[in-house]
């Protein structure tokens, strides 16, 4: 099972990891920048020291350096600077007698100033050499002034600069981490409040959540409200089914029980057989009623997932008509007029079949004594497909149609139906996005189920 982390940790890591990456890149850039800055500062200091020494040597003929020059040499960028000045003939004019190793050589006419890295008394140094025309004690020519400084001073300066930068960056990152942590905690407070509100609900409280929530959570709350609505509808449907079953099955079951008692108490074999036949008939009617109740509830649960079956409507209707033709119905003719078109629809095949079967059965039960023919047909166009069941029986007026469409509605007081046939058809049609239309004629009744084009496919 995949491990789950808290949303607070996820958000904190998502924010902090990029910040740490940026901080690392900034630190690396700062390190390189510190080195370049330190190098530039120290090199300019060496250049300033060389210019000051050269100027003082020219003014004092090498006898003494000015106070400001000595201060520069004593503490340039945090460390001592060594120097010497050579005359054109190679004689030292001023400064330290021992030069550092690694000073670049120069030709007579080369007056370019150069920086160099060398070694002085076993230590690595950074130096600057400049050659200028000067006149000292009446002797003129190209004098060479060289200054150098211990590299460790520069490294110490760089480390101090980097350390200060790291302290600043670390402080910023730590502050941001604390801000992010507490910010995420505060930002998630509405979720915690929502969770507590849901926890306080009982299993019977399935009302939609009306609490104000952030925009990012509205989708979750909307989905949760939809699920709560579905659960509430399912519970209401279950309660309705139990109520319907209890109401509709109470009397038939009582009748079956009474007939069973009468069979047991029959005084003769003939009476027992007659009562047994009545018992079988009552049991069949009760079974049919129970089946109708289950079908009605099944029709309520038709969902888009159950409407994905693709099947031939023509084959389904032919098969259904043949089943009814196989059973004698007082000479009533049942036929199908389906044409040659191969019409496929996407729907719940079982429930569509049940709906059409209920229409045929309804015509057989309520068509009256003059009923002689029932015709099943289907047609389609670009907008919809329709299934029609038409009979030549007694028909219904508008008031009777309204009664017949109601759950457990009985048009005739002497009817032996369940009152669920047409409501089942209505429910199946509506669950598929269609409708049921009843039209009374002279004589007979025409029932038509219409399904939208989205559920059909013609070949």
Automatic annotation (TrEMBL):
What residue stretches are annotated with the HAMP domain?
185-236
Instruction: Report the catalytic activity.
Output: ATP + protein L-histidine = ADP + protein N-phospho-L-histidine
Q: Which InterPro entries match?
A: 2CSK_N, HAMP_dom, HATPase_C_sf, HATPase_dom, His_kinase_dom, HisK_dim/P_dom, HisK_dim/P_sf, Sig_transdc_His_kin-like_C
Q: What PROSITE patterns does the database record attribute to this sequence? A: HAMP, HIS_KIN
Broad EC category: transferase
A Pfam family hit: HATPase_c
Provide the primary localization.
membrane
Q: Where are the transmembrane segments?
A: 161-184
| Domain of life of the source | Bacteria
Gene Ontology molecular function: any one: kinase activity
Might you give the EC number(s) for this enzyme?
2.7.13.3
Localization in the cell:
Membrane
* Keyword terms of this UniProt record: Kinase, Membrane, Phosphoprotein, Transferase, Transmembrane, Transmembrane helix, Two-component regulatory system
Q: Which CDD domains match?
A: HATPase, HisKA
Question: Where's the Histidine kinase domain?
Answer: 244-455
The family database entries (PANTHER family) matched by this protein are listed as: SENSOR HISTIDINE KINASE YKOH, SENSOR PROTEIN QSEC
Indicate what this protein is called per its UniProt record: histidine kinase
Origin organism is Roseibium porphyridii
């Amino acid at each position: 099972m995949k491990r789950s982390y808290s949303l607070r940790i996820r958000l904190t890591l998502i924010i902090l990891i990029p910040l740490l990456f940026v901080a690392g890149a900034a630190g690396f850039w700062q390190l390189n920048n510190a080195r370049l800055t330190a190098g530039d500062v120290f090199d300019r200091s060496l250049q300033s020291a060389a210019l000051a020494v050269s100027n003082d040597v020219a003014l004092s003929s090498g006898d003494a350096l000015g106070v400001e020059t000595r201060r520069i040499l004593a503490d340039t960028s945090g460390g001592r600077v060594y120097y010497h000045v050579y005359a054109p003939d190679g004689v030292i004019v001023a400064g330290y007698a021992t030069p550092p190793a690694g000073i670049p050589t120069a030709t007579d006419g080369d007056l370019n100033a150069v920086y160099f890295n060398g070694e002085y008394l076993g230590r690595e140094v950074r130096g600057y050499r400049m050659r200028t025309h000067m006149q000292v004690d009446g002797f003129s020519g190209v004098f060479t002034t060289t200054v150098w400084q211990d590299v460790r001073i520069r490294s110490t300066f760089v480390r101090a600069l980097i350390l200060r930068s790291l302290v600043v960056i670390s402080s910023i990152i730590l502050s941001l981490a604390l801000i992010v942590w507490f910010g995420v905690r505060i930002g998630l407070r509405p979720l915690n409040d929502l969770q507590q509100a849901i926890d306080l609900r009982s299993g019977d409280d399935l009302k939609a959540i009306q609490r104000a929530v952030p925009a990012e959570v509205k989708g979750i709350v909307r989905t949760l409200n939809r699920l709560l609505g579905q659960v509430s509808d399912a519970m209401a449907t279950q309660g309705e089914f139990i109520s319907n079953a209890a109401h509709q099955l109470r009397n038939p079951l009582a009748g079956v029980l009474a007939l069973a008692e009468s069979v047991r108490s029959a005084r003769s074999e003939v009476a027992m057989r007659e009562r047994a036949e009545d018992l079988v008939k009552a049991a069949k009617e009760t079974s049919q009623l129970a089946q109708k109740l289950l079908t009605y509830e099944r029709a309520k649960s038709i969902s888009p997932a159950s409407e994905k079956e693709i099947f031939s409507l023509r084959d389904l209707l032919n098969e259904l008509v043949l089943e009814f033709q196989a059973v004698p119905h007082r000479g009533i003719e049942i036929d199908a007029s389906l044409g040659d078109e191969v019409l496929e629809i996407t729907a719940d095949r079982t429930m569509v079949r049940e709906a059409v079967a209920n229409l045929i059965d309804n015509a057989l039960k309520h068509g009256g004594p003059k009923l002689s023919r029932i015709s099943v047909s289907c047609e389609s166009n670009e907008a919809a497909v329709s299934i029609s069941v038409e009979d030549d029986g007694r028909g219904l007026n508008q008031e009777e149609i309204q009664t017949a469409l109601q759950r457990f509605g009985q048009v005739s007081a002497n009817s032996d139906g369940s009152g669920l046939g047409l409501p089942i058809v209505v429910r199946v049609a509506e669950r598929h996005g269609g409708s049921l239309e009843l039209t009374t004629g002279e004589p007979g009744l025409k029932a038509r189920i219409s399904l939208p084009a989205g559920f059909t496919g013609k070949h």
